[in-house]
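Sample intake sheet
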Amino acid sequence: MPKKVPHFSKILIAWYLQNKRDLPWRNTTNPYRIWLSEIMLQQTRVLQGLPYYLKFVEAYPKVEDLANAPEDDVLKLWQGLGYYSRARNLHATAKIVSEEMNGTFPNNYNDLLKLKGVGDYTASAIASISFNQPEAVVDGNVYRVLSRYFGIPTPINTTPGQKEFKQLAQQLIDKKEPGTFNQAIMEFGARFCVPQSPDCGNCIFNDSCVAFQQKKVTELPVKIKAKPVKNRFFNYLVVLSENERTILQQRTGKGIWQKLYEFPLIETSEEINISELQNFPQFRTFSENLNIENISLFNEKPVIHKLSHQHLNTRFWIVETSEEKENTVPISEVKNYAVPVLIADFVSEFFENY
């Protein structure tokens, strides 16, 4: 464990107070607002998350408002932000806080950690910012700053690495201003000690940064290579009836996009042509109650939708029919459903002038 560096936190906080961005969640210590922002900014850049934060605060100014909202409305408002389990956990936790805790968030790290969707990072952020508790946050930005400054080669995506960096961050935190320190180190990593080509020559720590002194900036932090990306092949069946209705289905199970809506889906092991599609048992079952008049491929070149560990090679098949199945919806209402951004983009393009 590196020794505590004199004045590290003071130098960092001084930089932050002069350079911080004016973000709405930095103008409050309200735990609901802090929690909302931290959940949204997991796996999401500030510029992308900011409009969503503003929309949620406007629609649900209090945790009780979020708790009382229908889940479909919450998912719809979240649409495009990705990692939808965050939205489902957000809604579930809002209900717990509202109904079982009288709308009051826990005021300490251990109890915050018990909330659904709240891990070490989020619990530390809320505890420090809202309740002034010295709980250090560790995210990708913090890993990068600490690994470079102290020259630590321990892989950040291992259990020993996570433990080592958490202990170090806890050692460094300013106990008088823990919330400010946490926001400062995250801001510094996000805006100055960036992943690629940081401006080390003008860094406030360049006289003591191990990575800079030893020319190892590009080598740190160390991360063990993730599993190879899996390619999946999605074929969406977009039904168009004479009465201008279509079919939407809600995804179930624990996979991606749980509880979001989509067109009927046939997943295959590779790209297929129209005859191969029609010979799929799943397609034959699907078409039993439909009088299909024509099938055409909307996009010959697949849309490649990239998720963290998988790429979805997606094609949309237009299925024209004169008969309707049960549970159809008017085409004009498709845009009101919570759907993955992949579907939303297609709907916007295809149905815009339909």
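Comment: The CA atoms of residues 168 and 176 lie 17 Å apart. The chain has two domains: 8-219, 230-350.
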